[in-house]
Amino acid sequence: MRIFSTKIRKRILCAAAAAVIAVSGTGMTAMPVFGKETEGGQETDMRVEEAEKAMQSFLDRFYVVDEDNDRGEIVGEFFWTRAEMFEIAVDAYEKTGEEKYKDLMAQMYRGFVKSYGEDWSDNDFNDDIMWMTIGCARAYELTGETFYKEQAEHHFKLVFDRAWNDDLGGGLLWKTDQTCKNACINGPAAIAGCLLYRITKEENYLEKAKQIYQWQLDTLCQGNGAVSDNIESDGKINTWCSTYNQGTFIGASQFLWELTGEQKYLDEAILAADYTMHEMFHDGVINTEADGNDLPGFKGILARWLGKLVNEGGQEQYREWMELNAENAWKNQNAKGLMWTLWGEKTQDTFYMPWGCSAAIAQLFAVIRK
C-alpha cells in the first residue's frame, strides 16, 4: 500500500496557502460497512484494513514531502498538532507492525526537526514540548532508535526544570510567561515520566510521574471523574472538561497502575473514563469540539488513551462505546475518505483542516484489539 506520491504532494503544498486544504470531487461512492467481516476474515483484520484506508486517505490529502523524499509534514499545522499527528503514525506502526509506518514516523520526525530544530526550548508552551516528548518516547519503545530516546529524555528534563514550582502546592506551569497550571501539561508530563521510566528503569522518572500525577489529582480532579482545565495563580479553578484532558489523565492513571500495581490508579482511570462516557457524552457519539484551531483534534487523544485502557488494561466496558464512535466516524466519511471531527454528521466535500480530520484516524486505530 502506498503512503504518498512526492510529485502530487509537492503540488498540494504549493496550493496550501492560508493553511487550508481543498477537498475536491463530488462523485459519491458506496461507503464500506465498518467492521464487516469478509469470508474467512477476522474482525481484527477488518479493523486494521479500515484504519489503514482512513490513514491513506488522510495522507493523500494532507501529507507532503520534500524533493529528496526525506522529510515530510502535515501541511498547514503547527508544533503541537504536528506532534500529535506524529503519534498517529506511531499508533499505526504499533497496531500493524508494518515497516511503511516506521519509515513514515522517521520521515515525519525529520520534517518536524526541519521546522523546529532539535532543541525546542524556544517554545514557551510546555505542553507543546511534552506532546512531542511522548511521541518520541513511544517511537523509541517501538523502534529502538536512540535519537528518539535522547530527545524524549532531554525535553522531559527541560520542561520539568523550568515548569515545576511549589506555588499552588506544586504542578507544572502551562507556559513560561504565565502562572496558571493546566491539565494539558500535567497529564501528558505524567505519561511521559511513566514512559521514560519504562524505557530507562530510572526511578527518578517514576517519582516525577507520581509527583505530577498526585498534584493533578489533588488540585484539578473533581472527585467524580471530571478533570478541570486549569488553576490560576489566585487559586481559581476553571472546571471546564475536555476530551484530551480526560484522556491524558486516564492514560497516566493506567500507566501508574501498571508500573506500581496499586489499585488506586486503576480506580481513578475507571472513574475518569466513566465520567467521560456517561456524563460528558451520555454513552453517545462524540459530536463536539469543532471550533477553533485546537479543539477539533482533541478527541483523538482521548481515543488513544481510552483505547489502551480497554486493550491493555482489560476494561472491556468501554469497547462498545469506542466502537460506536469509530463506526459513526467511518460511515460519515466523505467521497475522499476523510472524517471530520463531528462524527455524528456527514463529512462534506469542502474545506477541512488536517488536525480536525486526524481524530477519527486515532479512533480507528484505538479500537483494534492489540
Provide a descriptive summary of the structure in words:
This protein is mainly alpha-helical and 370 residues long. It has a single domain (6-21, 48-366), classed as Alpha/alpha barrel (Glycosyltransferase). It is built from 13 helices and seven strands. The strands form three sheets. A three-stranded antiparallel sheet has the order 4-5-6. The chain has a two-stranded antiparallel sheet with strand order 1-7. Strands 2-3 form a two-stranded antiparallel ribbon. A hairpin with a 5-residue loop joins strand 5 (230-231) and strand 6. Helix 5 (126-143) runs antiparallel to helix 6 (146-163), helix 5 (126-143) runs parallel beside helix 7 and helix 9 packs parallel to helix 11 (298-311). The two termini are 21 Å apart. One of its GO terms (biological process) is carbohydrate metabolic process. Residues 1-29 form the signal peptide. Keywords: Hydrolase, Signal. This is Glycoside hydrolase family 76 protein.
